[in-house]
Amino acid sequence: MLPARSAEAHDLVPERVNSPYIHDPRTIMAYVNENYLKLAAGYLFPEIARRVSAFAAEKPELAKEIIRCGIGDVTEPLPASAVRAMHAANEELANRASFKGYGPGTGYESVRAAIAEGDFRSRGINITDDEIFLSDGSKGDCGNILEILGAGNRIAVTDPVYPAYVDANVMFGNTGAALAGGGYDGITYLPCTEANGFLADVPSASEATPDIIYLCSPNNPTGTVMDRARVEAWVAYALKHRAILFWDAAYESYNRSGAPKSIFEIDGARECAVEFRSFSKSGGFTGVRCGYTVMPKSLKAYTRAGDAVALHPLWTRRWNTRSNGVSYAVQRGAEALYTVEGKREVSALVDFYMENARILRDGCVKLGWKTWGGENAPYVWCKVPNGSDSWAFFERLLRDARVVTTPGAGFGRCGEGYFRISAFNSRANVEEVVRRLGSV
Ligand code: PLP
């Protein structure tokens, strides 16, 4: 029997065509990637949007009062230095003498250099310019990277987890079917619970060893941050088992705790890790679209015959074959974030959202709610106060407070009983959210 599906995923149920060719193995026909048909439910955020729209249609008089703290999308305008750089880049394109056509698929040299210097070498981390690969954001990178590793790796993710990792692996064929209670067969889920402070523990010797492990710190959705000892334990584990860590640092600019921002702060990580970075939450680029991957030249994976193969040439080849890179103006905008002024503006933007997070966190604590995150991440993670399930509490907050949150169950089984509040909003809205939460 097919698992329960949302309206969106329902569209994926194959339509049976009354064709004389069907099931005739001798007939050539276009095949579908059946991995897509395994997807158990619509992607979390469209499902939230659907429920919010349904409420707005049912109560149009309340629709304008809805405050969205569900999806983690920024609200503040772009840093002025990025805007100026993008304007200037477009002017260059308007002139024959300075016009640019196709750029390098992996990013302009000056942009790769600004990133390698600004985010790594200036912090004592040994990353070369050509280990930086520009992209249109890290959501794509987290899935695209699978292309060079092929299908068949055993994937581990934390539970709860940013859903894009899992769905990309389902689409790619790295999982079995959806399981009745949530999740997919074939994926290793690393439980993150109150008991471990919502931080993934390295698997014990008796547990199956994954080949690829997605780690995200500061974490989406829990807002928790891994300290150095924990990150070192993960690097040691990956080196021992010849596994690869996918370190998602989309929120590193919010981590002011002294805990590692980059996996490459840890000795040995160049031999076992890839890092994903995004300008979405640092430079407000969710709509502009730019991020990058750090692929160290020393990272290797293995053929089935056991031969080690460097991944850097494969990732370079992948980019040059499958993309013509990020648009010129966007790259110039990203580069401007590394100027003195750009850095100051990014820092002010992050300060602004962090103050929002503090207000939200303090508000939840005052209500007596058990709360995590919000100190080094733009997300506050709360225990559902009355013991109801997280979708039921989502509906209650939507209906009684007109506040959109994200139900923890949408991030995985261990998210059940919790919910996430995003700090990406105006100050006035955040203050209003705290007032309204107090009234439910
Ligand atoms: N990784 C995590 C953990 C995220 O939460 C997000 C976006 O919310 C992304 C990656 C995607 O970022 P981008 O906008 O660069 O695609």
Chain-wise SSE layout:
Blueprint: H1 7-10, H2 44-58, H3 60-63, E1 67-68, H4 80-93, H5 109-120, E2 132-135, H6 138-144, E3 155-159, H7 163-172, E4 188-191, E5 212-216, H8 228-241, E6 244-248, E7 273-278, E8 291-294, E9 300-302, E10 308-310, H9 312-322, H10 328-336, H11 340-366, E11 371-373, E12 379-383, H12 390-401, E13 403-404, E14 406-407, E15 418-422, H13 427-437
Parallel strand pairs: 1-13, 3-4, 3-5, 5-6, 6-7
Antiparallel strand pairs: 2-8, 7-8, 9-10, 11-12, 12-15, 14-15
Helix pairs in contact: 4-10, 5-10, 6-7, 11-13
Bound molecules: pyridoxal-5'-phosphate (PLP).
Would you write up a description of this structure?
The strands form four sheets. The chain has a seven-stranded mixed β-sheet with strand order 2-8-7-6-5-3-4, sandwiched between helices. Helix 4 packs antiparallel against helix 10. It is α/β, with parallel strands linked by helices. The two termini are 39 Å apart. It has two domains: 131 residues, Alpha-Beta Complex (Aspartate Aminotransferase, domain 1), CATH 3.90.1150.10; 260 residues, Type I PLP-dependent aspartate aminotransferase-like (Major domain) (Aspartate Aminotransferase, domain 2). 45% of the residues are buried. It binds pyridoxal-5'-phosphate.
Outline of this structure?
This protein has 440 residues and is α/β, with parallel strands linked by helices. 34% of the residues lie in helices and 13% in strands.
